[in-house]
Amino acid sequence: MRPFVLIALACLGWLAVLGAVNVDASQIWRVPGDFGTVPEAIASAQPGDTIEIDMGHYKIAGRGYSLPPGLTIRGIGGVVGSVVLSESARFPGDWRDAPVFVLDQPGEPCRFEGISFRDWNLGDGPYQFISNPIFHVLEGTLEFVDCEFRDFYKHALYFSGGDGLLDGCRFAHGRGCPSAVSFGGGELVVRDSWFHHNSWIHDCGEYRGSIIHLRSGQTSLIDSHFEDNGPLVRIIRIDRPAELNAEATCLVRNASMWEGRVAGSAYLDCCEICPSMWQVVDGGELVIIDPLDKAMARESASWSQVKSLFD
């Protein structure tokens, strides 16, 4: 039996060596330093690598940048706004005719930490019915931790598939239908995030404007806040078969016709919500947990007041 033991030990040793090689293969790239721009760093990065961006304001020109799974892009500074990425035109009349960043591979999550995305306005193109997002996920997991989206036009995040995480993020002064997230993947978790001063644009056609549009999958809203948004048709839109579970989430002082439209399923345990402003359609299911005392805990604009903002 001894030769078999020796062979097994040898195999274990090789596995340990290969594991060490894989760990060592992960690289940390600096911008600026190793690369002058963020797109250059992304183009050279491999799965498992980390891109660290020094404090400053960086312009992102072009689109269609492929994100490898397992990549971490981290802002150095620790304060919101210390690392800012802004959209920049390549030539006069340039517009966002394709998503800027694309994740289409399974594997470890692609993660952004401490990044502020500000002034992403090239979504206003010559064809108003075309809406290309800043990020498009087809497959894989995309995560944002302590990130900010501010002053953006049309979709910030669009999921055709895959999963997502928003942890400690802020979406402010966005305009679109929806302005922040359109989710059609498997699982989305939104935790400790704040949505404020987001509004709707009529370019998308019918009265469909929202902040979050859930098309499929399961979404969890945990300890998040929707405040001072509008004018909007609705804050949240839930299509069939999407499911929303909201816990300790507040909707306050929003100028909207409806707080939500439910064709899928919604289970709400929220700190402030108005049940009469939730529209249930097409066999949708709305369950409000413990609504007493907090259901009408704030003033909301009436239908006529909000509708007048669109006329």
Characteristic terms for this protein:
311 residues, mainly beta, eleven-stranded parallel β-sheet, 39% strand, globular
This entry's quaternary arrangement is single chain
Number of strands: 28
Q: If helices are DSSP runs of H or I spanning 4 or more residues, what is the number of helices?
A: 3
Low-confidence sequence ranges: 4-12, 15-23, 292-307
| Molecular shape | globular
Distance between the termini: 86 Å
Structural class: mainly beta
User: Measured on Cα atoms, how large is the radius of gyration?
Assistant: 22 Å
Biggest beta sheet summary = 11 strands, parallel
The average pLDDT is 87
Strand residue content: 35-45%
Q: Within the largest sheet, what's the order of strands?
A: 1-2-5-8-11-14-17-20-23-26-28
Percent range for helical residues?
A: 10-25%
Describe what you observe in this structure:
With 311 residues, this protein is mainly beta. The strands form 3 sheets. The chain has an 11-stranded parallel beta sheet with strand order 1-2-5-8-11-14-17-20-23-26-28, covered by helices on one side. A 9-stranded parallel beta sheet has the order 4-7-10-13-16-19-22-25-27. The protein contains 3 helices and 28 strands. The longest helix has 24 residues, at 2-25. It starts with a helix and ends with a helix. It has helices at 2-25, 38-44, 303-310; strands at 28-31, 50-53, 56-61, 65-66, 72-75, 83-88, 101-104, 110-113, 116-120, 135-139, 141-145, 148-152, 157-159, 163-167, 170-172, 181-183, 187-191, 194-196, 212-214, 218-222, 225-227, 232-238, 243-247, 250-252, 256-262, 265-269, 278-280, 285-288.
